[in-house]
Structure formats: C-alpha cells, structure tokens
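Reading a protein record of the kind used here takes only a little practice. Think of the row as the fold of the chain written in a discrete alphabet. With that in mind, consider the following protein and its fold in token form:
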Amino acid sequence: MNPEATAAHPVFCTIVPPHVLDKLARLDDPDRSRRALSTLEHDALQRTRRRITTVRALAAPTGAPSDKPNRTIYDAKHQEVLPGKKVHAETDKPSKDASVNRAHAGLGATFELYLKVYGRHSIDDSGLPLNATVHYGENYDNAFWDGQRMVFGDGDNDLFLDFTIPVDVIGHELTHGVTQHTANLDYFGQSGALNESMSDVFGALIKQYALGQNASQADWLIGAGLLGPNVTGEALRSMKAPGTAYDDDVLGKDPQPATMDHYVKTSRDNGGVHINSGIPNHAFYLLATDLGGNAWERAGQIWYDTLTGGELDKDAQFADFARLTVAAARTKYGEGAELQALLKAWSQVGVPTG
C-alpha cells in the first residue's frame, strides 16, 4: 500500500447526495428550495471545515479495547452548534426522546457487527468512543459523519423524515470512519464511488445483521423509511436494482447505474461518487444473493478483507478493487463457489478482474 494511504485524508460525506439537493434548490417552490439551499450551504461549510481542520490525535489505548461500545448522545436543540448538550450516556436508561434512542441503538448495531463478525473494535479497531448529535439545525435535511461524531437532522417532514430512522444510514456514515482508518480511499471519481459503496455495503449488512435477515430476505435498500410522505419512492438507493429507488416529480429519478455500460461521467458530486457507487453496490448484491445465507459472512468477509488488507491504494479504481476481491476470496475460500460467484458478479456489472 502507498504509505500516504495511512495518513488522514478527511472526507465529509452526507447521506443525501449533493445532486439531489441541487435539484431541490432550483425548484419554483420557495419553501422547498429554501430548505435545500440552506442544507447545501451548511454542507459546503462543513466540508470546508473538515478539509482545513487537522484531525486531532487520539490518545493511545492503555490496554486491550473493550468488547462493549462507549456511546454518548448530544442534543443540538435545533442549533448548528456541535456537539450540543450531552443527554445520554452508555449506561443511561432509554430516553423519552425517540431520536436519542434510535441514535444510541444504531451506534450499537454498527459496533456489534464489526466486533462480532469481523473482530473489529469500533471504527478505528482501537475502541474509539461513538458519539452522535441529534436535532441538528432547523429542518436540516441530512446526516453526516464529521470525523468525530455522527450528526442527524430532523428532516423537514415533507421530503425527508428524521435521519435517525434508518439504521443503515447510521452504519453507512460510521463506515466512512472505518474506510478512513484503513484504505482511506480518495473521495473523487471511482475511488470515491468505492468509498461510498463501502458505506452502502456495510450499512446494508448492519441492518441485515440487526434484523437477522439473510440475503434473500433483505430489501437491499439504503435509507428505507427516510423519504417523506410527499415523495414517490422507497429509499435513497437500491443495491438490488440501482436506478429504481425513487422516481419523483420533485426529487427526480434515481440516477444510479447498475453496470459499467451506463457509467456516468460528471464533474458534479466529486465525479459522481454517489451515482456510480451503484455499480460495485450491485456487484456485492449479486455475489451475496448468489451465495445465499447471511450476506455478512462470506460476501461481507471478502469485502472486509479487501478494505482492510493493506493492498487497496487510496486512488483505487473499480478494476483494482475487483482484482483484490478475487485475491481475498482465493486466500479465504480457495477456488470454490465463493470465487466463481464473485467472478460472475463482476462480469455481470462489466468490471474486469484480470
């Protein structure tokens, strides 16, 4: 691996992609366009702040990391001040605030999958405390990981609901932290789409693990339950059928491609990181459903080993990642069904593995 890959390259990712908010900001509806523009302006400020702020060094652990999560929830009380007021600690009883409880549970579900399935102690593998802030801003239509904490808006109750609702959104954002501490994929073009796809894959696995769903039972949707009552759609993205998650007069149509035949070349959204992530997402879905059983086991293990194995360069392209998944599958499972299903999945989405 390139030595620079282990250095901190701060990524600011929001679960609602900029291309969706851009479209909303240009609406004739003044209320909706105002909310979208406000969210975009806020996200741009946070993105700049994330880029120019030095990541604080964390104290080295004094012993073996705990097998228990260390979660703290804060309440921003609709202000844009972080972290806000501390309202819930790890050992506290459930709150009267449903957003607090959902954030606490989602952080725990993420911690549990990484520990129980992959032996990873929190997102940095050293027991990093997991913090979150709820009720951020007024009608803030997004959620993000800022390198130190999860931050959730309440949504506008029109196009988007409370961002603590989908557990996969929480898992998605925290997985950006896992990627930051491992391959540290550049957030542009195909490497950025891989960064996004990693978060979608493990976000989906966190939801499936929490619900006890196998690959055939899962919905393979990212952000199901997040879209508001006035939106025609079921989620932000679909790994099963990229491009079908929503088709709405206001939000527009889901632009994700499922194969390289429809790869989107764009300078927007950091080179289409939230769009072209549909291709590796679909490859994972094809692999997991072909293998059957629990997706976090064989399919998830191949993806985890590739992300954390030390060979994935920070500027990796889809073909680089695919080639390394093949090597990881051979190392773990030999020449059996896992490898054959993997080669077939990459072939179906048009990504070479040679």
Q: What stands out?
A: The first strand starts at residue 13 and ends at 14. Strands lie at 13-14, 71-75, 85-88, 130-134, 143-145, 150-152, 221-222, 237-238, 247-248, 252-253. The mean pLDDT is 91. The two ends are 19 Å apart (CA to CA).
